[in-house]
Prior knowledge:
Elements: H1 2-7, E1 11-19, E2 26-32, E3 35-40, E4 54-59, H2 64-73
Amino acid sequence: MHLIQTKAADLYRCKGVIALQGSDEKHVFHGVHEQIAFAPVDEGWAEGEKRVCKLVFIGRNLDKPALDKAAQACKA
């Protein structure tokens, strides 16, 4: 959320897939500037599919080390 509050004008696009601890649902997010949508995917994780978190941020003047550190801090 801090990224959106401080860099919304520089954050052109973001998207990702997220595995939440304790949930069998696959979640996705996507956004443009301040408009972010987050929801579970209807089909969920396929049997045997590795549950991963992948995040993509497209923008200018983004601090990659800070983004990596923030993402790592969310891992359970």
